[in-house]
UniProtKB/TrEMBL annotation:
Transmembrane segments: none annotated. InterPro entries: Znf_RING/FYVE/PHD, Znf_UBP. It comes from the Eukaryota. Its EC number is 3.4.19.12. Keywords: Hydrolase, Metal-binding, Protease, Repeat, Thiol protease, Ubl conjugation pathway, Zinc, Zinc-finger. This is ubiquitinyl hydrolase 1. GO terms for molecular function: cysteine-type deubiquitinase activity; zinc ion binding. It comes from Schistosoma japonicum (Blood fluke). It is an enzyme of class 3 (hydrolase). Belongs to the peptidase C19 family. Residues 98-206 form the UBP-type domain. It catalyses: Thiol-dependent hydrolysis of ester, thioester, amide, peptide and isopeptide bonds formed by the C-terminal Gly of ubiquitin (a 76-residue protein attached to proteins as an intracellular targeting signal).
Length: 237
């Protein structure tokens, strides 16, 4: 099974529907109107061409009618396709990172802090992953603890609560295209149009950075996978 990369269900890159937890039975009938007489139509064999009508031969239907039936049987429901597309768009719209209201006029302290391109560590504990650099003072601290006990020790959010410095970038997600930025007062992942400038203030050249850690979206996907595996195990116990 392909590893999910999106927090969505039933789409490319998302989670698969749990096919082994239910069965779907289809029943097809051909009805002639206005007479109302009908006959049962068998389901098409999986894996055959869209226009294959071998399962309809015994009905001795006109070829064009048999072809139409076969295409309808194998076609995805237009309503289902529309609902799925709408759900995906709604999910993606909900997860768009808007420009932070703090980004354009962010105050950065001139404290001579210089951040190396790698080898980071939380300033308050020994964690070396899930690290966030505050874009105001350059302090590197670990992120929040996740529901399953993984993650960090909440030192980055505690730093915000003490200083009210609003924006932090997740180290390890920075590339020449950008990086993950979180706004504490806005309580959301955000876009920082001046991220390259804000990083340069602390000696980081964004053009030289490479992704070394999973993004928050990727971590959420992993967490949902683990939760799904746990629920599956509970059903087996």
């Amino acid at each position: 099974q392909e590893h999910p990369t999106k927090l969505a269900i039933g789409i490319s890159g998302g989670f698969d529907f749990p096919q082994d937890m239910y069965t779907v039975t289809e029943h097809w009938s051909l009805v002639r109107l206005p007479q109302g007489d009908s006959c049962d139509i068998p389901n098409p064999e999986p894996g055959l061409a869209q226009d294959d009508i071998s399962h309809l031969r015994f009905l001795e239907l006109p070829n064009r009618l048999a072809m139409s039936i076969a295409l309808i049987q194998r076609a995805e429901s237009a309503l289902l396709a529309e609902e799925r597309a709408s759900a995906v768009k709604a999910w993606e719209d909900d997860n768009i990172c808007l420009i932070s209201s703090y980004a354009m006029n962010l105050v950065q302290i001139d404290n001579s802090v210089r951040i190396p391109p790698s080898g980071w560590k939380c300033a308050r504990c020994d964690l070396r992953d899930n690290l966030w650099m505050n874009l105001t003072d350059g302090t590197i601290l670990c992120g929040r603890k996740f529901w399953d006990g993984s993650g960090g020790n909440n030192h980055a959010v505690e730093h915000y609560e003490k200083t009210k410095y609003p924006l932090a970038v997740k180290l390890g997600t920075i590339t020449p295209k950008g990086g993950e930025v979180y706004s504490y007062p806005e309580d959301s992942m955000v876009t920082d149009p001046k991220l390259a400038e804000h990083l340069a203030h602390f000696g980081i050249d964004i053009m030289l950075m490479q992704k070394t850690e999973k993004t928050m979206a990727e971590l959420e996907v992993d967490a949902n996978e683990r939760l799904g595996e746990w629920l599956t195990l509970q059903n087996l116990i």
